Amino acid sequence: MPAKLLQINYNLSGPRAEYESENLPYAQRIADMAGLRWKVWIIDETRGEAGGIYLFEHDAAAQAFLDGPIIAEMKCDPTLSIKAFDIMPEHTTITRGPVG
């Protein structure tokens, strides 16, 4: 099964320090998700946007995350954007992407 990449973004509702503090407890919950290879946390204070890039082992693991309690909590945010992508393994290997 091919890996699945998720890009999740939303608007920041406060200062960065507050965001980091509020979201630190989620890091371990996300790390414990079955099928998650890694997550990179992203933030752009200037544009007021935050989120993450997630790599899952396969579609089913990504879908289980999307159907789970963490995303359910986030769905009340009207700025939430979720995009799913397939990985192009040959190209990514050449450019040293950490997806193998």
Helix content: 25-40%
Mean pLDDT, to the nearest integer, reads 94
What is the rounded Rg? 14 Å
Structural class: alpha+beta
| Domain unit count | 1
The CATH top-level class label: Alpha Beta
Q: Name the strands of the widest sheet in spatial order.
A: 2-3-1-4
Identify low-pLDDT runs: none
Share of residues in strands: 25-35%
SSE diagram, text form:
Blueprint: E1 4-11, H1 16-31, E2 36-44, E3 49-56, H2 59-66, H3 69-74, E4 81-86, H4 89-94
Antiparallel strand pairs: 1-3, 1-4, 2-3
Description of the molecule:
The protein is α+β, with helices and mostly antiparallel strands and 100 residues long. It has one domain: Alpha-Beta Plaits. 36% of the residues lie in helices and 31% in strands. It has four helices and four strands, in the order E-H-E-E-H-H-E-H. The protein has a four-stranded antiparallel β-sheet. Strand 2 and strand 3 form a beta hairpin. The chain is globular and about 40 Å long. The mean pLDDT is 94.
List keywords for this structure.
four-stranded antiparallel sheet, globular, 100 residues, 4 helices, Alpha-Beta Plaits
Brief rundown of the structure:
The chain is an alpha+beta fold. It has four helices and four strands; from the N terminus they run βαββααβα. The protein has a single domain, classed as Alpha-Beta Plaits (2-Layer Sandwich).
